[in-house]
Design a protein that fits this description.
The chain is globular and about 50 Å long. Strands 6-5-4-1-7 form a 5-stranded antiparallel β-sheet, with no helix packed on it. The chain has strands at 48-52, 57-60, 69-73, 79-86, 89-93, 99-103, 107-108, 112-115, 123-126, 135-139, 144-150, 154-159, 164-169, 173-174. It is mostly beta strands and 183 residues long. A hairpin with a 4-residue loop joins strand 12 and strand 13 (164-169). Residues 1-33 have low confidence and may be disordered. It is 0% helix and 37% strand.
Length: 183
């Protein structure tokens, strides 16, 4: 199930340039942040993961409401990778690799993740952070979880519906970096 489709704008080709243009973005899997490792507005680490604060959020082609809408996201808490800052706008990328600009007010620092969409078998939700621990549930790819903390190899997570909690191998989540520690 794809969390992020809803509307494609027929006017994407008719984008007018903004008065100020953000730094160019390298076309690669890893979008460059112009040699910086902190945001030009907040001073926070780049890239970093954030989540959607709003139930409906528009991803735009550029950093202004003058730009066309690329996607409309309708999943509160969806994790996004924040890769650049420009005024009140943030360049983000979703789990499918789609990138675009969102207003900062739509984003939250609350950490969430989805079970990695590239997994065929999903991920085990376990009672403790160890190989061979009792399995509470099998989480299908794309399931949204709230991150409580991560040790660098395991994340303590919670699901809202049904109310479950436990541990998932960090490598099986999209929304946390490999070996990232979250307290």
């Amino acid at each position: 199930m794809k969390a992020a489709i809803v509307f494609f704008s027929a006017f994407a080709a008719m984008v007018q340039p903004a008065q100020a243009t953000p730094a160019p973005i390298a076309a690669s899997d890893s979008i460059a942040t112009s040699g910086r490792n902190t945001g030009r507005v907040t001073g926070l680490k780049l890239p970093r993961f954030v989540s959607l604060k709003s139930e409906t959020a528009r991803m735009r082609v550029g950093p202004s409401t003058d730009y066309a809408v690329r996607f409309v996201y309708m999943v509160t808490g969806l994790p996004l990778e924040l890769i650049e800052e420009w005024g009140n706008w943030r360049l983000v990328r979703d789990q499918d690799g789609a990138s675009g600009w969102m207003h900062a007010a739509l984003l939250s620092g609350q950490r969430t993740a989805t079970v990695a969409p590239w997994l065929k078998q999903g991920a085990n939700l376990q009672r403790s952070p160890a190989q061979g621990a009792d399995i509470t549930a099998l989480l299908q790819p794309g399931v949204l979880v709230k991150i409580r903390d991560c040790s660098g190899s395991w994340c303590s997570v919670a699901l809202q519906r049904p109310r479950l909690s436990g541990y998932v191998a960090q490598a099986k989540l999209w929304g946390v970096y490999p070996r990232e520690v979250i307290e």
